[in-house]
Amino acid sequence: NVHMNSSTYSHIAQAWQFIEETSMTADTADIQSVRAQIAHKSTVVSSSLAAFIGMQAQLIQARNVLIIGLDSGIEIPVLTHGLGEASQLTVVTPSADDAQRTRSIFDSLRSPHTRMRCVSTDVKTFLHRLNAHDYDMIIVSSEAENYAIARDEVARLLRDGGMLILTDVMALTDEKSEGGVPNPADRHDKAVILRSVIDELMHDEMYTTALLSIATGVLMAVVHQ
After folding, report:
1. How far out from the chain centre does Cα 122 lie?
2. At 70, phi and psi to the nearest 5?
């Protein structure tokens, strides 16, 4: 059992704040620009999460990355600059506004080696059309249904050893959140779906998984075909 008193919780909150503030000092000008663009929104912008995603992409030498939904947007410059030569970044979102914002961010980066395909459409239909085992990394965020669709598709889409990253797995950033996944009384769609997705992925022998307290929660899974 994990026993933590109020002092421990306070120290953890201070540690998370220190981590974020320290991570922000390493933000590039491109990341700072994206942050400034959404400063008026209530979006959670985590520099430590962006750094984590960028590092994982480099560790597995990712060249073909699929993003389902858009988090804060700072994942776009992190991945664009972090991927190697002749890399492909594919973004699919049901939100036309998010798609337009994604294209605007990417165009401002003027990357010489990373191509981007950004599509605003029904996510499930789009994923069905993608080639099997083509992707090194899949990142999922935003709408509740994105997580359920991704759970059903990632084993087909990822290569052997490919990585799945689910962000906001505690379902805390949704406007309807009432404490998210940790609160059993929170029954809004995203919390309900993510409880199921977390349980299934962590008990599926096809994946090696880790549930991490980065930003508002991350589930990382490596697939073994």
Report:
1. 19
2. -120, 130
pTM passes above 0.90: yes
Reduced to 3 states, what is the DSSP secondary structure of residue 88? Answer: strand
Residues 6+ apart with CB under 8 A from 185: 178, 179
Confidence of residue 39 (pLDDT cuts 50, 70, 90): low
DSSP label at residue 160: E
- 87-93 and 114-120 strand pairing: parallel
Of 101, 93, 208, residue with least CA distance to 141: 93
Share of the chain above pLDDT 70, in %: 95
Cα four-point dihedral sign 45, 143, 147, 188: positive
Residue 19 DSSP one-character state: H
**CA dihedral sign, ordered 100, 158, 151, 207:** negative
Reported residue count of the chain is 225
What number of other Cβ atoms are within 10 A of residue 107's Cβ?
10
Q: Tell me if 57 sits within 8 A of 137, measured CB to CB.
A: yes
Sheet of strand 135-140, all strands in order from the earlier edge strand to the far edge: 114-120, 87-93, 64-68, 135-140, 158-167, 218-223, 207-212
Torsion of the alpha carbons at 130, 94, 74 and 64, rounded to the nearest 10: 0
CA distance 22 to 31: 14
Measured distance CA(51)–CA(57) in Å, rounded: 10
